[in-house]
Design a protein that fits this description.
68% of the residues lie in helices and 0% in strands. The protein is mostly helical. It contains eleven helices and no strands. The N terminus is likely disordered.
Length: 283
């Protein structure tokens, strides 16, 4: 009787999962989710490769001109119904001030990249523990935007049929958009929804506001996406609702980071901590 009981007990022990194997997966996941110090060479390579892939995929999406123009007409009608269809008035008003619209053209062409890269460099140098999570937000935001370009081709206001918008780059002979002038064949002109000028600028603004310690810098963080919104409308590159699409994509990006790290980027340690000293909470 005793031998039989002993044998059954031993059999149950042998059938039970090995405790080391059971703990391997959680340990690996915890290690992947733990903030690490970024490596410069890897980040440069990753950003360059990611932007190249983004541009390649975005420009490979069929332009679908007819559908893009129909979608633009629909957006314009919806905005009229909502009482927010003031893009044309803003476009004409700003275009009448030459120095202002020329400045906005160059703003549109440059700050989208310069400020975003600047924030990434600042994070790398001063907030290395939060860098990977914040970068994940940016990458996830951009990735889901590609889905939007494919599913919902949209012409910018300046290309609408029968529209009276001014293509400010063409009129003032500035290089404010890859989709205007001699560069228009290098970029998909019908990928206006969602606006990544807004998605990226709001990402920059929220990151600066959450992590900067100097008050006026935090204020600038909030001013930047607001100014970008005015610029994309004044240059007739986007509708207001394109900006809403960009913000929704950014919300998705923050959701991905929250699920992966168990916390929002600004809640993570400023600098990486020793392995095992910080564990993410359950998402």
């Amino acid at each position: 009787m005793g031998d039989t009981t002993m044998t059954a007990t031993e059999g149950l022990r042998e059938a039970a999962p090995h405790p080391v194997a059971a703990e391997t997966r959680p340990a690996l996941l915890s290690r992947l989710r733990t903030p690490r110090r970024p490596r410069l060479w890897f980040e440069i390579l990753l950003i360059a490769l990611s932007y190249w892939t983004y541009s390649l995929v975005r420009n490979a999406v069929p332009e679908q001109r007819g559908q893009a123009l129909r979608n633009a007409d629909w957006i314009w009608r919806v905005e009229h119904q909502l009482g927010i269809a003031v893009e044309e008035s803003v476009n004409h008003a700003v275009n009448s001030v030459t120095w202002l619209i020329v400045g906005m053209n160059y703003y549109y062409a440059t700050l989208h990249f310069v400020v975003t890269l600047g924030v990434l460099v600042w994070l790398y140098r001063s907030h290395s523990g939060r860098y990977a999570a914040t970068r994940m937000v940016l990458f996830a935001t951009t990735g889901v935007a590609l889905v939007g370009y494919y599913l919902y081709p949209l012409a910018p206001p300046r290309l609408m049929n029968g529209g009276h918008f001014v293509d400010t780059v063409m009129v003032h002979q500035t290089w404010g958009s890859m989709a205007s002038g001699d560069l228009k064949n290098m970029s998909n002109q019908y990928a206006a929804m969602p606006s990544m000028h807004i998605g990226w600028s709001v990402w920059c603004g929220l990151t600066i506001f959450a992590l900067a310690t100097v008050p006026w810098v935090r204020v600038l963080g909030l001013v930047y996406p607001a100014a970008t919104l005015v610029v994309i409308v004044a240059t007739a590159n986007h509708f207001w609702l394109d900006a809403v699409g960009g913000v929704l994509c950014l919300g998705f990006g923050y959701g991905v980071a929250r699920v992966w790290y168990g916390a929002l980027p600004h809640e993570l340690p400023r600098v990486p901590v020793p392995r095992g000293a910080w564990l993410p909470t359950k998402a």
